[in-house]
Amino acid sequence: MTPHYPDVAGRDPDTADRPDSRCVRAVLSLYPRRWRERYGEEFAALLTDMTAASPWRAWAGLIVDAAAGALDARLNPPGGSSMHDRIRRSLAVVACAVVAFIIAGAGFQKMTEYPDFRAAADQHAAIGASFDILRAAAIVAGVAVLAGALPLAWSVIRQAVTARQADLIRLLIVPPVAVAAWLAIVVVITKVDRHPQVHSAANVATVAAIALLGAAAAAACAWAAVTLLRRADFTPRLLRPQVVPMAVLSVCMAVVTGADISWGLAVRAADGALFHSDNGLLATSLPPSWAGGVVVLAAVTVVTAAATARAARELHTPAQ
Amino acid sequence: MLVLASLADGPKHGYAITQDVAVQVDVRLGPGTLYGAIGRLEERGLIEAMPAQQRRRPYRITAAGAQELAQAAARMRDVAEFGLSRLAAARTTA
User: Counting beta carbons within 10 angstroms of the beta carbon of residue A212, is it exposed (0 to 12), middle (13 to 18) or buried (19 or more)?
Assistant: First the structure.
């Protein structure tokens, strides 16, 4: 039997006045969602009891202490620093890196679709080989992403159906809907303007609009992936093998980055005029478009490799 | 340590712990401080939650928690005895 304690003002905590429940709710909202799910109700009861029983100066101290506790809970979430949560965070980082990788890859594809580049790839072995290696590595990277993502997606579907968590299904639907909507817009635009002048202002504006919408779709995909990885329950058995596709993806990204560098250098060596032409993204000069793509690819490679290394280290850390 | 000591004589919910600690050792535990400690002790398996009673959830000390408390209290007792004995010796020689 739990002993029953009156509050400091001699009132029963069960019947004590609630002087400012809005303030208690506001303080509670500072805590992370998981913490609130676990401790929220009892913490709110405690805070209500303590503030009801305190003079205003002590009341302010209680609120400050509760707010400081929120910071502590965010820095050290309950059970939030387990090995599998850290792998989950690494996966979220990789999901965002994949989105950036796809954008950079699409940019490269768009940039190299002009006949001049195809002809250069046919005529110069170094350009052609770089292009082929880049494409092959990108395909393997795509397979690795699918190998990692499909088991997680299947687990989310099962969880959403068995636990009737419609929000998970909604999040799962976001990426295909965002991509499908973007593709539909692209199809409509290309059907309306069948033979655009490549460097015309109208065409540049159209491509810029398509790119912006694509970026918005990519951002929606990244947000959905990160939110799913945070909300859904994944078993250790499902999370641990994720390190393998992450490692394959890291290697593929490194190969793609190297091939992109090699491609640009080969184009410059073989055809200086083509390299300095305005066949870059949005009809701009090629070198900045190429260099920008290389920087993005290198950055996502480093980020993915670091997240993979962190996840791999977690597997070798003894469970606490 | 204070939370473990408070729970050593039986389960208590958060408010009861703050009252007990205030009465016994005149330390006012704030709500954030208390639940930070509760979270860490629970994670380490030194205390465990019991079924909630209305909005309050009592906690009780586990066997591991009792052992940890006993060891920590013994260390503190040794430190206190060491300090007091040195003070007594200094007074004698003065």
Answer: exposed
For the entire predicted model, the pTM comes to 0.58
ipTM over 0.95: no
CB contact under 8 A, A35 and B39: yes
Q: How many domains does chain B have?
A: 1
The tally of domains found in chain A comes to 2
The answer to whether residue A3 neighbours chain B at the CB level (below 8 Å) is yes
Asked if residue A159 belongs to a domain, the reply is yes
Do the chains contact at A39 and B20, CB–CB below 8 Å? no
CATH code for position B72: 1.10.10.10
Helix (H) or strand (E) holding B48: strand B47-49
Give dist(CA A291, CA A240) in Å, integer. 36
Whether residues B15 and A69 touch (CB distance < 8 A) is answered with: no
One DSSP character per residue, B68-83 reads: HHHHHHHHHHHHHHHH
Distance from CA of A72 to the nearest CA of B (A): 7
Instruction: For residue A99, give Cα distances in angstroms to A145, A200, A215, A244, B51.
Output: 11, 29, 9, 19, 45
pLDDT (tens digit per residue) in B47-90? 988 888 888 889 999 999 999 999 999 999 999 999 999 998 88
Which of A1, A4, A5, A23 is the mutation pick for testing B, counting most B CBs within 10 A? A5
